[in-house]
Amino acid sequence: MSIRTLNCIVPPHVLEHLRQSSDTAVREAALTTLLDTTMLRGQRSVRGSLLGLASPAQGRRTVFDCGHRTNLATAVLARSEDGAASADASVDQAFDGLGSTRQFYGDVLGRNSIDDRGMRLDGYVHRGVRYNNAFWDGQEMVFGDGDGRIFTDFTGSLDVIGHELTHGVTEFTAGLEYHVQSGALNESISDVFGSLVKQWVRQQTADQADWLIGDEIFTPDVDADALRSLKSPGEAYDSELLGKDPQPAHMRDFVDLPDTEAGDNGGVHVNSGIPNKAFYLVATGIGGYAWEAPGHIWYESLRASTATTDFQGFADTTFSKAGELFGQDSVEQKAVASAWGDVGLPVSCAPKGMRSGPSGGAGGGGDPLGDLSRQVSELARQLQELTQQVQGQPKPSGKGGRSGAGRA
Ligand SMILES: [Zn+2]
Asked: S-S: 291 plus which of 44, 58, 295, 364, CB 3.0-4.6 Å?
């Protein structure tokens, strides 16, 4: 038995900051969300039941209404694939978002739903009261309504839906372990394809796209562009209420965090800024629609990755995939090499002269500090794994989550 993997859109560091707000209502909603999520994680892993879900269903959508309860089993059917539109905007937004994501994967990448075998898509709306999150739990996508103060209805953001369902795609392909570098890569893959779903629906080029994740989930009163920005990691928000966006955009700024729930599993929502920025640079370097060459290179690299692939491994894979798909020394392959060089991860198989970015200098020639921090992270991860094995089973909440020392 393992801790259930719950892929939440709002990372713990944001909720931790809100938990310390001077506003009681904000604090309470944040605390409820943290507590609730921690309890959910403590439930049995659902991984074992995945096989039963893989039966062909042509990706049929079903949306259920939780009626503000937290128990999904008591939710009522609100809309099915062939059913009429609902009077409830959240139901229809969830239904449409699931459909757009399914269609993006089918039309653009030739993938038949999450598992490539027509897995059905279930969405649950109006979960809980003032629940400040949305998540994918391996089986279904679940949406809170938000507290109305900071966050609003999570069904309103297409990139959030694309992000969450992509966690399912990753689970069925590389299966990237959800901690430290493989976990940050997992998060980044979800941000990349979540953004691509939105760009594809809007028919925007890389230059036209906003590259934001979750810009619609904040109420108008909140001074934040979004939860994350692939274009400018670290600049999505900076306010007293939310704190400052902690994402780095370069390996020299890689953030070492403990591989615990309070530490965001080693900073999976933090260090994802580095591969996010690399994808943005590839997309704008090549130009045009980002779901075309860049999206295909990333998708094929995801399919060629494994559970423990790290940033460097993924960078190298994108370089070789770009060569396979578009030719050695192609514009696409050069853009890939240049982008990774710019974020401090020069691809190890690139010929000389292609390793550093066009701006020269900054990323070229490796990054000893980054290498060191990678090793430290990997050792910390192994140590954590070992400790868990020795203890017999991981702690469901323990020092994590709510009693954390508040990282602003
Ligand atoms: Zn995620």
From this structure: 295
**Residue 350 pLDDT:** 56
Q: Which of 391, 393, 385 is nearest to 182 (CA)?
A: 385
- Give me ligand 1 centre to Cα 132, in Å: 14
Range scoring the smallest mean pLDDT among 14-28, 244-258, 339-353 = 339-353
| Catalytic residue flag (residue 324) | no
Closest to 340 (Cα-Cα) out of 369, 308, 362: 362
Residues 67/187/236/29 CA torsion (nearest 10 deg): 30
Active site residue 164: yes
164, 171, 300, 332: the active-site residue? 164
Q: What is the average per-residue pLDDT within 29-49?
A: 70
Q: State both tokens at 157.
A: 């953001």
Contact (Cβ atoms closer than 8 angstroms) between residue 309 and residue 298 = no
CA 164 to ligand 1 centroid distance, Å: 6
Q: Confidence band (pLDDT; 50, 70, 90) for 405?
A: very low
Name residue, tokens 């996010």: 276
172: nearest Cα among 3, 4, 305: 305
pLDDT single digits (tens) 42-70: 665 444 444 445 456 789 999 999 999 99
Question: How far away, in angstroms, is 98 Cα from ligand 1 center?
Answer: 16
Residue type, 231: K
Set 17, 179, 269, 296: catalytic member: 269
pLDDT in tens, 351-378: 544 433 333 333 333 443 444 344 345 4
User: Could you identify the residue written with the tokens 């370069």?
Assistant: 250
DSSP letters, 200-211, are HHHT--TTT---
Please report, for the chain, the start and end positions of each structural domain, with discontinuous segments joined by +. Answer: 7-172
State pLDDT tens for residues 225-271: 999 999 999 999 999 889 999 999 999 999 999 999 889 999 999 99
If you average pLDDT over every residue of the chain, what do you get?
85
Cα 327 to averaged position of ligand 1 atoms, centre (Å): 32
Nearby residues of 269 by Cβ (< 8 Å), 6 or more positions away: 11, 12, 13, 184, 187, 228, 247
Ligand 1 center from residue 117 Cα (angstroms):
22
Going along 18-177, which residue ranges are E strands? 61-65, 76-80, 121-127, 134-136, 141-144
Class of domain 7-172: alpha beta
